Amino acid sequence: MAATPRTTPSSRKPRSAARAASRPPVHRDDTTSDEPETTEADAQESEAVNKYVTGELCGEAVRIIPPGAWRQSWRRLLMAGQIDDFAEIVLHPDDYELYEDIDPTNDEFGELVNTAAERAGESLGKSSGSAPSSRRTRRR
Q1: Distance CA 52, CA 24 (A)
Q2: Which of 11, 42, 96, 131 could form a disulfide linkage to 38, CB 3.0–4.6 angstroms apart?
Q3: CA-CA distance, 106 to 82, in Å (whole number)?
């Protein structure tokens, strides 16, 4: 099979020094920025602002970030059983003290999460998976 110009490694023109020099490097000078410096935690918190839904925890109304907006790192806290650390992140800061005072059981906290998912229009139920094929397949 003959090599075509498209498949030959030398078919691409190397960049010349003049071409490279014609494009000055871009330097960002962050020291002159008027914007305040934000940390990763601040950025995550600002994303979550005004995204709370109200749920009920042992008869008390609390605000919680809906499950669809949770970061994977938050979910890992929940799955690792670090409920207090998880609750501190997903509950509204003004409601976390109430959570500590209530000291809910796992079932009560689970009900809060399910209520939050329902109010946000999400489902936390397990996926049923794909439906089985209606066509029968023949063994060979």
Answers
A1: 46
A2: 42
A3: 11
Question: Considering only CA atoms, which of 136, 113, 75 is closest in space to residue 85?
Answer: 75
Among candidate residues 74, 63, 43, the one with its CA nearest the CA of residue 116: 63
90, pLDDT greater than 90 = yes
- Average pLDDT of the residues of the chain: 73
Sign, Cα dihedral of 40, 43, 49, 51: negative
CA distance 122 to 131: 21
Residue 31 tokens read as 């020291």
Closest among 84, 124, 130 to 106, alpha carbons compared: 84
pTM flag (> 0.85): no
